[in-house]
Amino acid sequence: MTQEQWNAIKNRDRRYDDVFFYGVKTTKHVCRPSCPSRLCNPKNVIIFNRIEDALRQGYTPCLRCRPEQAGWRGSKTELTEAAKAYIQAHYMEKFSLKAIALALYVNENYLLRIFKETTGQTLLAFHNDTRCLAARELLTHNELSISYISDSVGYATSSHFARTFRRTFGCTPSQYRKDYFASISVEGHADKGSLI
Question: How many whole angstroms separate alpha carbon 141 and alpha carbon 55?
Fold first, then answer.
């Protein structure tokens, strides 16, 4: 092991991920240089240029840094993406931190903390943003009433929907729809004019 490799391991330097892997002789685990596990004794480290070499020698992939998964971005990112996917699939339901944590097999407080750390926003804010994006798409269909759209994206009342939509997009659902159809009308006239 070179000093550069040890520095990469010690500093958990992501730039060296997939450049080399390190095995820990005492645990028989193989890790990426950026692995968040407790730092091991350098005397117990063996360097591998390829993950396959480590596996062939009986080392097992670390469950924290997933060295066998190319392009893996870390457990926190993986958890955040799973939470987003869950919310996007269930945004019409009432927000429930307990349901999300149970579905992802994690502690509620840990999930809240990691999601905020990774995205900069709360789970509830992401839930509301997801609902509002779905509503914005529905607002482009003039035949759907605002109350129908509010109900379709999971809001109990149209007033709560309107307040949340305004906070997200800076205008009410009615104003968004009005502006959307006005812009379509203007574009239509422009197209006609260009044909003359």
Answer: 55
Q: What is the pLDDT of residues 33-70, one digit of tens each?
A: 988 888 889 999 999 999 999 999 999 998 888 888 76
Distance CA(131)–CA(151), nearest Å, equals 11
Number of other residues whose CB lies within 10 A of the CB of residue 112? 18
What local confidence, expressed as pLDDT, does residue 192 receive?
A: 37
Which residues neighbour 45 within 8 Å (Cβ) at sequence distance 6 or greater? 1, 6, 9, 22, 23, 24, 25
Q: Is pTM, for the whole model, over 0.70?
A: no
How many helices, marked H, and strands, marked E, lie in the chain? 9, 4
Residue ranges of domains in the chain, CATH in brackets: 3-61 (3.40.10.10), 75-183 (1.10.10.60)
Burial class (CB in 10 A: 0-12, 13-18, 19+), 72: middle
SS3 label, residue 184: helix
The residue type at 24: V
